[in-house]
């Protein structure tokens, strides 16, 4: 029986940490070898980390990546390793090294370079021009890198037509809500269309605004899911591939060699021997391991926890501080931070003003107790009065307005930054996507912070995530009264968010249509929304681009986040909202 034991090492590598990444890779090579594995695969760019952005323009970075590759090659005794790195010829290539028994046998260059959304690969890399089939222990394997597999008549089809029985794709495919389902649908159809086993090894971990969700999978040649690794966690997924099954399926399925089929990719298919057939005594097949997918809210929550943990720890911070208002946003941020870092690393600062309801401090303290975090209380009245006194001469004969309101938010930002400087705690910003979209935030005030963990989470989803976490906890970890409160910035007496914004249940779908789906005002109105509300929302979004450019980075969880995904000019006369 022709079989291949494959290991997919979905590791959490760190951009530029060559020493740490090599250590992690070698540890997994050793584990795979001990498990009797024929081939172990690592994610796209596992050696330099992904995406390294303009570090790729530095030759010292490329050279360090090549030295790290040499160390991995030396550690590959008795096993085949497929690992992502940057190859340097005349130009740079996003590449997979195919290594066997201490030797670099071949290098595959990624053919399709994504250059949309958050990707900029054409800025750095040149595309490959060949898609070989590698013989590994007598099995024909087509190897490709991430975007290559997304084309239905791309390298996978070329390699299958050239005899590949297994398609191995190494990826760094970033997360957004629900993406795993579409990714699996695509991989399943790549398997059935080519009557080939498809093994997909994904990166896991947070890198600035991106989270890579892991969830590596293997589909058999009939499109059945035979292995799935955990989402958002490192794992070495080991599976036995029944390659004989591919031969039998192909005999019975005339579709796999479609005569005259027009292919998107016209690269030649060479044959390269990595290791010849091994005459092993027949091994018992490993049991199948299929981790179930997380349900919708759990998936987003886990992405936020992983993104927070990796940003804070990979940037060398031991702790964080959060302004606790007794509202739902800061409560969710504190809860995620505790799940990411542990309660001893999370600190709260309660800063009541003359306009704060006494309930706000009560709820904030209750949350801190439930989470087991330390919370300090520093009222802002003295500072606020001092500011107003200092400005009284300059501001005389003016009416109180947003100026006085924002001073409070700015005092709070200053106090948070003071504790950050003193104790080395990063300030976690608490703005959600609905606020970031509409500019309902104060520059140099509540916009302060090093990382904005819920900046891509709409307010209605903030509420759902709080309920999800309470259900997980089995009690009201986030007090129910906090979730049910009428949202208010408490910057003037009786202020409510709805004084300025539509109700969030109405605002969020309009924002989805405008920001994530790029619909125009007329199209959104045609969906049944009140024209004046649509125009107002669109106007708020368009005129607050300047604020977003000054806002901290945060975790992408939707198909289109603010930042690299949506690059709009600040200065523009194109204003559909008027
Ligand atoms: N194109 C441009 N490029 C660069 N800067 C520009 C600009 N347009 C205005 N500006 C500057 O921006 C300033 C206005 O921005 P800013 O000072 O922030 O003030 P502004 O946006 O007018 O007010 C903040 C709003 O957010 C609300 N808020 C505050 C705090 C917390 C929350 C909450 O829900 O958590 C909500 C608050 O009630 C108020 O409605 C202008 O004075 C001007 O200096
Ligand atoms: N009294 C306060 N004490 C501590 N921090 C505060 C206080 N008021 C506001 N903040 C900080 O400023 C952020 C802006 O919150 P604000 O209360 O103005 O409205 P919000 O966006 O609805 O947030 P939340 O739901 O957390 O209240 C809060 O999330 C919090 O971090
Ligand atoms: N790194 C890549 O090539 C990623 C592109 C791919 N389409 C994805 O998002 O999964």
Automatic annotation (TrEMBL):
<dbReference type="Pfam" id="PF02540">
    <property type="entry name" value="NAD_synthase"/>
</dbReference>
<feature type="region of interest" description="Disordered">
    <location>
        <begin position="549"/>
        <end position="578"/>
    </location>
</feature>
<dbReference type="GO" id="GO:0009435">
    <property type="term" value="P:NAD+ biosynthetic process"/>
</dbReference>
<keyword id="KW-0520">NAD</keyword>
<keyword id="KW-0067">ATP-binding</keyword>
<dbReference type="InterPro" id="IPR022310">
    <property type="entry name" value="NAD/GMP_synthase"/>
</dbReference>
<dbReference type="InterPro" id="IPR000132">
    <property type="entry name" value="Nitrilase/CN_hydratase_CS"/>
</dbReference>
<keyword id="KW-0436">Ligase</keyword>
<dbReference type="InterPro" id="IPR003694">
    <property type="entry name" value="NAD_synthase"/>
</dbReference>
<feature type="binding site">
    <location>
        <position position="173"/>
    </location>
    <ligand>
        <name>L-glutamine</name>
    </ligand>
</feature>
<dbReference type="GO" id="GO:0005737">
    <property type="term" value="C:cytoplasm"/>
</dbReference>
<dbReference type="Pfam" id="PF00795">
    <property type="entry name" value="CN_hydrolase"/>
</dbReference>
<dbReference type="InterPro" id="IPR003010">
    <property type="entry name" value="C-N_Hydrolase"/>
</dbReference>
<feature type="binding site">
    <location>
        <position position="430"/>
    </location>
    <ligand>
        <name>ATP</name>
    </ligand>
</feature>
<feature type="binding site">
    <location>
        <position position="179"/>
    </location>
    <ligand>
        <name>L-glutamine</name>
    </ligand>
</feature>
<feature type="binding site">
    <location>
        <position position="435"/>
    </location>
    <ligand>
        <name>deamido-NAD(+)</name>
    </ligand>
</feature>
<comment type="function">
    <text>Catalyzes the ATP-dependent amidation of deamido-NAD to form NAD. Uses L-glutamine as a nitrogen source.</text>
</comment>
<comment type="similarity">
    <text>Belongs to the NAD synthetase family.</text>
</comment>
<dbReference type="InterPro" id="IPR014729">
    <property type="entry name" value="Rossmann-like_a/b/a_fold"/>
</dbReference>
<comment type="similarity">
    <text>In the C-terminal section; belongs to the NAD synthetase family.</text>
</comment>
<dbReference type="GO" id="GO:0005524">
    <property type="term" value="F:ATP binding"/>
</dbReference>
<feature type="binding site">
    <location>
        <begin position="323"/>
        <end position="330"/>
    </location>
    <ligand>
        <name>ATP</name>
    </ligand>
</feature>
<dbReference type="GO" id="GO:0003952">
    <property type="term" value="F:NAD+ synthase (glutamine-hydrolyzing) activity"/>
</dbReference>
<feature type="binding site">
    <location>
        <position position="547"/>
    </location>
    <ligand>
        <name>deamido-NAD(+)</name>
    </ligand>
</feature>
<feature type="compositionally biased region" description="Basic and acidic residues">
    <location>
        <begin position="562"/>
        <end position="578"/>
    </location>
</feature>
<feature type="binding site">
    <location>
        <position position="406"/>
    </location>
    <ligand>
        <name>deamido-NAD(+)</name>
    </ligand>
</feature>
<protein>
    <recommendedName>
        <fullName>Glutamine-dependent NAD(+) synthetase</fullName>
        <ecNumber>6.3.5.1</ecNumber>
    </recommendedName>
</protein>
<dbReference type="GO" id="GO:0008795">
    <property type="term" value="F:NAD+ synthase activity"/>
</dbReference>
<comment type="pathway">
    <text>Cofactor biosynthesis; NAD(+) biosynthesis; NAD(+) from deamido-NAD(+) (L-Gln route): step 1/1.</text>
</comment>
<feature type="active site" description="For glutaminase activity">
    <location>
        <position position="110"/>
    </location>
</feature>
<dbReference type="InterPro" id="IPR036526">
    <property type="entry name" value="C-N_Hydrolase_sf"/>
</dbReference>
<feature type="active site" description="Nucleophile; for glutaminase activity">
    <location>
        <position position="146"/>
    </location>
</feature>
<keyword id="KW-0547">Nucleotide-binding</keyword>
<dbReference type="InterPro" id="IPR014445">
    <property type="entry name" value="Gln-dep_NAD_synthase"/>
</dbReference>
<feature type="binding site">
    <location>
        <position position="116"/>
    </location>
    <ligand>
        <name>L-glutamine</name>
    </ligand>
</feature>
<dbReference type="GO" id="GO:0000257">
    <property type="term" value="F:nitrilase activity"/>
</dbReference>
<dbReference type="GO" id="GO:0004359">
    <property type="term" value="F:glutaminase activity"/>
</dbReference>
<feature type="active site" description="Proton acceptor; for glutaminase activity">
    <location>
        <position position="44"/>
    </location>
</feature>
């Amino acid at each position: 029986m022709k079989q291949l034991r494959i290991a997919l090492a979905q590791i959490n590598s760190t951009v530029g940490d060559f020493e740490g990444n090599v250590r992690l890779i070698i540890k997994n090579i050793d584990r795979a070898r001990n498990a009797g594995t024929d081939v172990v695969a690592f994610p796209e760019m596992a050696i330099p980390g992904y995406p390294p952005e303009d570090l790729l323009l530095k030759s010292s970075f490329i050279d360090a990546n090549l030295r790290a590759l040499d160390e991995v090659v030396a550690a590959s005794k008795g096993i085949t390793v497929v690992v992502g790195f940057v190859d340097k010829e005349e130009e740079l290539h996003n590449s997979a090294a195919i290594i066997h028994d201490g030797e670099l046998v071949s290098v595959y260059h990624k053919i399709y370079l994504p250059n949309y959304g958050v990707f900029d690969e054409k800025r750095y890399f040149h595309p490959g021009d060949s898609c070989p089939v590698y013989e590994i222990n007598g099995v024909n394997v087509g190897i490709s890198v991430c975007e290559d597999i997304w084309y239905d008549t791309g390298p996978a089809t070329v390699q299958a037509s050239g005899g590949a029985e297994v398609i191995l794709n190494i990826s760094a495919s970033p997360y957004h809500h629900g993406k795993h389902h579409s990714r699996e649908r695509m991989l399943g159809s790549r398997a059935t269309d080519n009557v080939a086993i498809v093994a997909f090894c994904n990166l896991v971990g947070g890198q600035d605004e991106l989270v890579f969700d892991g969830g590596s999978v293997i589909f058999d040649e009939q499109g059945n899911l035979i292995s799935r690794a955990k989402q958002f966690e490192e794992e070495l997924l080991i599976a036995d591939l029944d390659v004989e099954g591919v031969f039998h399926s192909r005999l019975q399925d005339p579709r796999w060699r479609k005569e005259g089929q027009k292919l998107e990719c016209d690269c030649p298919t060479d044959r390269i021997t990595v290791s010849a057939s091994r005459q092993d005594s027949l091994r018992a097949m490993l049991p199948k391991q299929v981790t179930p997918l997380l349900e919708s809210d759990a998936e987003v929550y886990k992405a936020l926890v992983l993104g927070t943990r990796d940003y804070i720890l990979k940037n060398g911070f031991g702790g964080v501080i959060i302004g606790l208002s007794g509202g739902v946003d800061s409560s969710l941020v504190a809860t995620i931070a505790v799940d990411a870092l542990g309660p001893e690393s999370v600190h709260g600062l309660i800063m009541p003003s003359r306009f704060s309801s006494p309930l706000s401090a009560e709820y904030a303290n209750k949350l801190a107790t439930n989470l087991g975090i330390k919370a300090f209380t520093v009222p802002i009245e003295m500072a606020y009065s001092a500011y107003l006194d200092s400005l009284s001469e300059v501001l005389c004969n003016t009416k109180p307005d947003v100026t006085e309101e924002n001073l409070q938010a700015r005092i709070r930002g200053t106090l948070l930054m003071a504790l950050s400087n003193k104790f080395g705690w990063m300030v976690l910003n608490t703005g959600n996507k609905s606020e970031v979209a509409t500019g309902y935030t104060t520059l140099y005030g509540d916009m302060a912070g090093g990382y904005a963990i819920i900046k891509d989470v709409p307010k209605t989803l903030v509420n759902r995530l709080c309920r999800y976490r309470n259900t997980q906890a089995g009690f009201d970890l986030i007090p129910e009264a906090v979730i049910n409160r009428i949202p208010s910035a408490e910057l003037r007496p009786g202020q409510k968010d709805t004084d300025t914004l539509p109700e969030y249940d109405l605002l969020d779908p309009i924002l989805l249509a405008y920001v994530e789906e790029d619909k125009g005002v007329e199209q959104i109105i045609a969906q049944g929304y009140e024209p004046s509300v649509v125009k107002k929302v669109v106007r708020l979004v368009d005129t607050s681009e300047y604020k977003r450019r000054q806002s901290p980075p945060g975790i992408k969880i939707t198909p289109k986040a603010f930042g690299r995904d949506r690059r709009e000019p600040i200065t523009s006369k194109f204003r559909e909202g008027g």
